[in-house]
From TrEMBL:
Mur ligase central domain span: 119-294
Pfam families, per the entry: Mur_ligase (PF01225), Mur_ligase_C (PF02875), Mur_ligase_M (PF08245)
UniProt family annotation: Belongs to the MurCDEF family.
HAMAP family hit by this protein: MurC
Organism whose genome encodes this protein: Microbacterium panaciterrae
Annotated protein name in UniProt: UDP-N-acetylmuramate--L-alanine ligase
EC numbers on record: 6.3.2.8
Role, per record: Cell wall formation.
Gene Ontology molecular function: any one: ligase activity
Mur ligase N-terminal catalytic domain sequence ranges: 18-112
Cellular compartment(s): Cytoplasm
Positions contributing to ATP binding: G121, A122, H123, G124, K125, T126, T127
């Protein structure tokens, strides 16, 4: 992988930008906004996708596969940390002396000094960003935004607005969230992750302290998460607003109901309002509370903010229903950390009712799997009824000997609760033989695990129920 060099200069003017890895949810959103700004856009990705086709329809010159010839006459090249240093487009850009910038620097260029809401945290930031954006639109604002996932009712992950306000999902994984000139910082939680970049839990927490203290207007932070509480102790900012279930939270959540879509009462500065979301799970009530607190810092009344957040319909790859066959519903979720997996499975339990939950888990990255295999096993064994374990999605990492899906499955206390199978078709067929009427299947992971869903649905159609 290529670590971002944030010391490299960001150009004042960009005429033609080339995106290496343009098909990703974040990169495609950036490319769309560059097009909105009147900049010529080209880009490449290793596989065709809906994002590539959508960008082509908007006028971008897109290519499937990486080749030096794709660079064309671009004056600026935007890349992610996921590409290899040997990428031919990256090498040619360096050889030509072009501006070669990380995607976070491209986003910094787009923001251009506007009033910025930055949403950071180990979990929940895509949903929280989506909630803030959709609420602002419902309240009549026209914000600019870049989210890490597609917002369901908008059908896009980014858009250019007419207001000075800019809302972003700020990525802590590589420290680039410290690049932005944030006005309002939202910290959803601080569960140590990405230690391949930070090296220690302490460094990870310190980065969030810096992120909070550098916000020019306000910091909104969880009152419940242990990591957030540790960060809170180091924050010296004069305007900190906490949200959550704790009795001393500035914006407190009470009276939660989870029988179906989640509902709760939010109390802030002596006023209360009842929240009823269209999405399930206690974690989404907490995400909504953080979003409402941010809206409060932007000047919106509690009742108006709650009403606006209620319209949020979800983001793609977050508890997303893909279909049903033979009485078995098949969902997908982006969860790739034990805390996220637990939240997704707890929310799924409110949907499944008396049916069982069958999880299809694809561990993400060798380093995370090696570090957290026991935590994954514990969560899956306790919160799913049965788990089908796939192999690791390495993403930017090289394989590590002995680190496979079997490392996780082997850590289950009861091997009857898990089945490790590397072959996807065999995994789909096995899932279909296990599932029965009323069960739910959920794929879990931020790699390409969702692509197994058509195979699962087909197997359900053609495989007799046990």
């Amino acid at each position: 992988m290529i670590r971002p060099d944030l010391t490299l200069p960001i150009p004042d003017h960009i005429t033609a930008a080339h995106f290496i890895g343009i098909g990703g949810s974040g990169m495609s959103g950036l490319a769309r906004m560059f097009l909105d700004a009147g900049i010529r856009v080209s880009g490449s990705d290793r596989a065709d996708s809906d994002n590539l086709r959508a960008l082509a329809a908007l006028g971008a010159d897109v290519h499937v596969g990486h080749d030096a010839a794709n660079l064309g006459d671009a004056d600026t090249v935007v890349h992610t940390g996921a590409i290899w240093p040997e990428n031919p487009e990256f090498l040619l850009a360096k050889e030509r002396g072009l501006h070669v910038i990380h995607r976070s620097q491209a986003l910094h260029w787009l923001i251009g000094g506007r009033r910025l809401v930055s949403v950071a945290g180990a979990h929940g930031k895509t949903t929280s960003t989506g909630m803030i954006v959709t609420a602002l639109l419902e309240l009549g604002a026209e914000p600019n935004f870049v989210n890490g996932g597609v917002i369901e009712q908008l059908g896009v992950s980014s858009s250019s607005g007419q207001d000075e306000l800019f809302v972003i999902e700020a990525d802590e994984s590589d420290g680039t969230f410290l690049l932005y000139d944030t006005s309002v910082a939202l910290i959803t939680n601080v569960d140590p992750d990405h230690l391949d970049h930070y090296g220690s839990d302490e460094a990870f927490h310190d980065a969030f302290v810096t992120f909070a203290n550098e916000a020019s207007e306000a910091v909104v932070i969880s009152s419940d998460d242990a990591g957030a509480l540790r960060v809170r102790a180091g924050i010296t900012h004069s305007n900190v607003i906490s949200f959550g279930l704790a009795e001393d939270a500035d914006l407190r959540i009470t009276e939660i109901r989870t029988d179906g879509a989640v509902a709760a009462t939010l109390t802030f500065r002596g006023e209360s309002a009842r929240l009823r979301l269209a999405v399930p799970g206690v974690h989404n009530a907490i995400n909504a509370a953080g979003a409402v607190a941010v809206l409060g810092t932007l000047g919106y009344a509690l009742a108006d903010a709650v009403r606006a957040v209620e319209g949020f319909a979800g983001t793609v790859r977050r508890l997303e229903l893909h279909g049903a066959e033979r009485g078995v519903s098949v969902y997908d979720d982006y969860s790739h950390h034990p805390t996220e997996v637990r939240a997704a499975l707890e929310a799924m339990r409110t949907i499944s009712g008396s049916g069982r939950i069958i999880a299809i888990q694809q561990p993400h990255t060798y380093s995370r799997t090696q570090h957290m295999f026991q935590e994954f096993a514990d969560v899956l064994e306790n919160f799913a009824d049965h788990t089908v374990m796939l192999d690791v999605y390495g993403a930017r990492e090289d394989p590590v000997p002995g680190v496979t899906g079997e490392l996780v499955s082997g850590a289950f206390a009861d091997p009857q609760h898990v089945h490790y199978v590397a072959d996807w078709q065999q995994a789909a067929d096995y899932t279909a033989t296990v599932a029965r009427d009323g069960d739910v299947v959920i794929t879990l992971g931020c790699g390409n695990v969702y692509q197994i869903i058509p195979q699962v649905l087909e197997a359900l159609r053609t495989t007799a129920e046990n």
